[in-house]
Amino acid sequence: MSEKLNSALDTAGPQAGRIEDLWWLLFGFCAVVFVAVMAVLVAALVRRRTPDESMEPTYAGQRTALRYVGAGVLATGAILLGFLIASVTTDRGLDEIETGGARVLTITGRQWWWEIRYEDARPDRVVVTANEIHVPVGQPVLLRLRASDVIHSFWVPSLAGKRDLIPGRDTGLWIQANRPGTFQGQCAEFCGYQHAHMRFLVIAQPPAEFDAWLEGQRASAPEPATDEERRGREVFLAGSCVMCHTIRGTAAGSIVGPDLTHLASRQTIAAGARPNTRDHLAAWVADPQRTKPGARMPVPELPPADLQALVTYLRSLR
Amino acid sequence: MKLSPEVKAALHEPATDTEAALLERTWARPRGLAGWLASTDHKEIGRRFVVTAFAFFLLGGVLAALMRLQLSRPELGLLDPDLYNQVFSMHGATMMFLFAVPVMEAMGVYLVPLMIGTRNLAFPRLAAFGYYIYLFGGVMIYVAFAFDTGIETGWFSNVPLAGPEFSPGKRTDFYAQLITFTALSAMVEAVNLIVTILKLRAPGMTLNRMPLFVWAMLVTSFMIVFAMPTVATGSAMLMLDRLVSTQFFNPAEGGDALLWQHLFWFFGHPEVYIIFLPATGMVSAMLVPFTRRAIVGYTPVVLALIATAFAGFGLWVHHMFAAGLPKLGQSFFTAASMLIAIPSGTQIFCWLATLWMGRLRFTTPLLFVLGFLFTFVMGGLTGVMLAAVPFNLQVHDTYFVVAHFHYVLIGGAIFPLFGAFYYWFPKTYGRMLSERLGRWNFALMFAGFQLTFFPMHILGLHGMPRRVYTYPAETGWGGLSLLASIGAGVLGLSVLLFLINVLLALRRPRENPANPWHADGLEWSTTSPPPACNYADLPVVRGRYALWTKGEPTVVTGLRRDRMFVLVTHVLDAQPDHKREMPAPSLWPLLAALATTALFIATIFTPWGVVWGLIPVFVTLVGWFWPKQDES
Predict the structure, then answer these.
(1) CA nearest A21 in B: which residue?
(2) Where on the phi/psi map is residue B89: left (φ > 0), alpha (ψ -120 to 50), or beta?
(3) Domains of chain A by range and CATH?
(4) Model confidence, pTM
């Protein structure tokens, strides 16, 4: 998974695909119209005229000229009608989905990260993660979109158009990836201080691989295997981390910040602000305000040895 | 004063020197600082208005340059996110509230009375009041910004982000009051222009002989009267939510987060046409002298202006397609948004036909008109694309939209405005701007503009959202962003060149050409700059292109020259109706504006500001309206 698609013109799903088709239609006609209008303009500027240096005004030829204006207006109207039909047809197409067996995700926008819940009829099978959405290739996924604080907007250009997440209202969107790949997503509605770092990834996997991933996410956090990891867990549970985060399988169960049960399985930290490497993670935990100024995470104030142990533990949460 | 004066059209006999001198004394304002502050001359107010708006344009431009610096490379740290958010919010608010709308009103305040052949605006003191309110509002927000209390939630300031919970402190309160200031200023100037245009036209200037710029200002002023109250209501509700804990916009208490967006965009979209329509009026005005022919399709152009104004109120939801409103409603707004391309297209085709049929003189104003046509047509076409809901869902809130609206606003309004500066500068200052520098000004502005904003279309399609203070390198946006930043530098250079051109022209002695362009408009028949009374003899208009109409010019006689009389005419056919005495210059508008400013700013800090703040406003208004003893 080398390249991470992030373009409305490089699409990997039926939603974005339909819109891309519409774009090329609009672009084609608009390009022709633009060239035609500019050709008329240039012709008007350079056309040969009878030399006339007098300042006398003219009023001649109004009627003929107005006929051309009328023709231009009619042509504009015809093209617009075509655009309207194309737009409405595409719009209906975006809603055509077999919702029966579709997997349902609830996505909650928060300042400035994404909470992702894989819903399940059995509550113990619900998976909660953050900032990274895995989807099975070729299957539609229904997204229920919510906001807990301000308005955000969910956007993965290569998969679908955007949809706002509005406090007090539920909105929805469905997406489907037709091929495996990693797609960049981001908040598209200005949501405050760190709007720029409210990014996420959508990772489309073959269904079997996806099922395995989901099963892995359902599991509780792995037990620490080394003393260092055990110490890290102690630091986590004894310090301020536990006030906000959940690690399933431990006593940490707060839902203010992202669920960290399988943190190490994710590609990025801090909602796409940094890649998930040991160094970046250590820097982030040591002082979140340096990595992402304004982030809601306070500085935990840990001695260096504790910090290293904590990072080692977090890195073990696969 | 109700009696119809003895007004007759006489053969043109210019007023004698002594008569003209008497008239000038009557209309001149008192000397000195107090006189300067008390001025109610529309030319003086209009000039200050334009200069102030231009100063805010420069400030907004500096903010834009800061943004382009920060975004020129990925992960730059020149501006921290807090400052960047203030900078982009201040840029948007400055350009929309403190530059684009006011500068168009200002051009109207200056030009309309000259164009319709009268001596002042209908409500001269109101004009001064509107200007001062605007000035104080603008100064307030920049003082706040200087103290790190600038707007932080965008010029649109969506709730709940702008609500008391997520925008603590006073920043958003200053934003809400900035809206109150500019809405009040815009509304009083609009009412003033409407009455002036409908009642003070020169005899003979029937509605269907009215210059197209005046038509555009009339239609725009009506739009302002209908659009501004909505946003003023919205900002008042936002203030109340923040100040006294009403819950209009708080979903947790039964309020609605989307209500704000409806209120804001019901104003916000017409606002675009409030900026654009006066510019189309300027284009129509400039095309006539530089093609040396009548506009092709005067009537279609007027109808297009009116149609745009109506349709402009029916498409605000296209700013909210991503909010997931019901489909049927969205289809209506798609249709309405596309529909507006028809009147805009009509105007463009009429201008193209005029160019085609005309004998062109490639002056700087005409170059700006040509730049306008190129740029605005492109922006209009991307606008049509944006009306399509599915496509809008992809590029909404991305750099594609940033590109689009800069194409329509800079292309559609700033190019014509700069053309208009070159065109009317000699009328205002009695000197020509350099054509040579003007051509460079245009070339750099055109090239810089395209270089800055064309790449943004592509950035948006490739996923770059608006209002981000930085972006990771892996997004691949670095190259085009750098190009845009370089373009912004060129654009800045062109504005600098304009300033140099103005300064050089002002250093030259006055040439006072009355009509250097051999233009048709009435304003070119008076001296440059015009005298305090505008016209020594009030003109009578006998055709659509006043100065090109053949035959002896006729003037109005019979108005006393020792009193500030203007001639009031009928709405449709501009037949003389009665004379009216204009109020004398006065300091009360300034004092009333100061009192109103104190009221507005006090309410940022305490609800009691409304109670106590009303007292000085009341006192100054009483002073303002205190009846004058009639000396006769």
Answers:
(1) B391
(2) alpha
(3) 103-217 (2.60.40.420), 227-315 (2.60.40.420)
(4) 0.95
